[in-house]
Specification:
This protein is α+β, with helices and mostly antiparallel strands and about 290 residues long. Helix content is about 35%, strand content about 15%.
Length: about 290
C-alpha cells in the first residue's frame, strides 16, 4: 500500500495544500520526527499525485491503534467509491470505525480490582471516533466541502451511505468488516480524559456503553488473544506499560495539566478536576509511604 504517516496537530487536514506539506517538512527538519513513515521526497511525490487523484486522510492519536488490516482495507474499499467520485470530482466520503476496544489503566468493573495488564472493554460506536476517521476526497474536493463540526457528531450531520439506494457520495460509511476497527488507551496520558476510570468517584465520566460492560469482565483472556492477533499487542508489553505509568503518575498528571487548553489539545474543566484529584491522591500516597 502507498501511505505516509506524519505527526501534526493541525485540524482540519489538508494534504493537497502546499503550505500544509511545507509545514510538515519544516517541522520535521526542526524535530527530526514529524515524518513517522516515509520520507520528504515521498511526501512531495504524494503531494503532487494528490492534485489529480483521490486522496485518503486518516487520523490516529499517539495513544491509539488501528486494525492490522486498516490501510489495506481502506485502500481496497474506499477507492471503489472513486469510480463515482471521478464523475463528480468535488464529492467526498467519510469513513469511521463501527466498533473499537478501550484499554483501561484501572478496573472499570465493579467486582474486580486493578490488574497488572489492565482491562479491555469492547464498544459499538454510535458516532465517529478519532482513530481511523478517514476523509476521502474527490479530485477537486477539499476539507471546506465537508460539513463543519466535531467528528463525534458527524453521524448526525452527514447522511449514511446506502449503496443499495444509490447514496454513495457525500455520505458516511462505517467499516464494519474490521471489528474492532481501533483500540484506544484510557490512561492518565489522555488529554480529554474521556472514559478514563481512575476511581469510583469519577464513574460518572464513563460513557453509557460501560453500564452494560460487566459481562466482558469474564472475557478478558479471549480479548487478549484477539488483541494480539488484530493489533499485535502482547499482554506482557501491556504489563510493562501499565507499570511505567503507575510509577510516573504524578509526572504524567502534571504534564497533562500543563497541556490542557493548548493548541491541538482538549480543554475541559472535568478533565482538569480528575487530574488534580489524581495528583492529590498520588502526593498523599507518597507522604504516607514516607511516614511509614
Amino acid at each position: 500500500p502507498n501511505f505516509l504517516v506524519v505527526a501534526s496537530n493541525e485540524n482540519p487536514e489538508g494534504f493537497r495544500s502546499e503550505i500544509a506539506v511545507a509545514d510538515i517538512v519544516s517541522r520535521d527538519k526542526e524535530s527530526n520526527n514529524n515524518i513517522l513513515s516515509g520520507s520528504e521526497e515521498l511526501l512531495w511525490r504524494y503531494h503532487d499525485a494528490a492534485q489529480h487523484n483521490i486522496v485518503l486522510e486518516s487520523r490516529l492519536d499517539a495513544d491509539d491503534g488501528l486494525h492490522a488490516n486498516f490501510v489495506q482495507y481502506m485502500q481496497g474499499v474506499a477507492p471503489h467509491d472513486g469510480l463515482v467520485l471521478a464523475e463528480k470530482t468535488s464529492s467526498w466520503n467519510v469513513w469511521c470505525a463501527f466498533s473499537h476496544l478501550e484499554w483501561q489503566y484501572s478496573s472499570p468493573f465493579r467486582h474486580l480490582e486493578d490488574a497488572e495488564e489492565g482491562y479491555f472493554v469492547g464498544i459499538k460506536n454510535v458516532g465517529c471516533i478519532t482513530p481511523g476517521l478517514t476523509f476521502v476526497y474527490g479530485v477537486t474536493a477539499s476539507r471546506d466541502n465537508l460539513p463543519a463540526g466535531k467528528h463525534s457528531m458527524l453521524h448526525s450531520t452527514v447522511r449514511a451511505c446506502k449503496p443499495h439506494k444509490g447514496i454513495v457520495t457525500d455520505c458516511l460509511y462505517k467499516f464494519e468488516e474490521l471489528m474492532p476497527g481501533a483500540i484506544r488507551a484510557r490512561t492518565p496520558t489522555s488529554a480529554g480524559m474521556a472514559n478514563v476510570h481512575i476511581s469510583t468517584r469519577h464513574n460518572k465520566h464513563l460513557s453509557k456503553a460501560y453500564k452494560n460492560a460487566e459481562p466482558q469482565a469474564e472475557l478478558q483472556d479471549d480479548l487478549w488473544r484477539g488483541v494480539a492477533g488484530v493489533f499485535g499487542i502482547q499482554r506482557e508489553k501491556a504489563v510493562e506499560t501499565r507499570s511505567y505509568i503507575a510509577s510516573h503518575l504524578s509526572e504524567i498528571a502534571l504534564e497533562n495539566l500543563k497541556g490542557q487548553c493548548t493548541a491541538g489539545h482538549s480543554c475541559k474543566n472535568e478533565s482538569k478536576a480528575i487530574l488534580h484529584d489524581l495528583l492529590k491522591v498520588e502526593n498523599s500516597t507518597k507522604e504516607d509511604a514516607v511516614v511509614a
